[in-house]
Design brief:
It contains two helices and three strands. By secondary structure, the protein is of the alpha+beta class. The chain has a single domain, classed as Ybab, Chain: A, CATH 3.30.1310.10. Strands 1-2-3 form a three-stranded antiparallel β-sheet, covered by helices on one side. A hairpin with a 4-residue loop joins strand 2 and strand 3.
Length: 91
């Protein structure tokens, strides 16, 4: 039982380490006058919008930027996890 608790604590510690590492990383997505910056934990840290964009094009462009940034962030997360040797018990 104590062995399971230690494994759980180690897993939580490693997950926290990965989360802290990802918080220091950023991904950027730019499309049609919209620039979005997101950290590795998928938190939007910056959004810049060209004021000349029409409302119709703006909605689609922001959606595309968000989706692009999420994909980049997920790839970054997978790479960092692989670089750190993955999570114990997940192999």
């Amino acid at each position: 039982m104590f062995n399971k608790l230690k494994q759980y604590k180690d897993l939580r510690s490693q997950a926290k380490s990965v989360q802290d590492t990802l918080a220091q990383e950023t991904v950027t997505a730019e499309k049609g006058g919209v620039k979005l910056i997101m950290d590795g934990n998928m938190k939007v840290t910056s959004l810049t919008i060209n004021k000349d964009l029409s409302k119709e094009s703006l909605e689609g462009t922001i959606t595309d930027c968000i989706n692009d940034a999420i994909k980049k962030s997920q790839k970054l997360m997978a790479q960092k996890m692989q670089d750190m040797g993955g999570m114990p018990g997940m192999q």
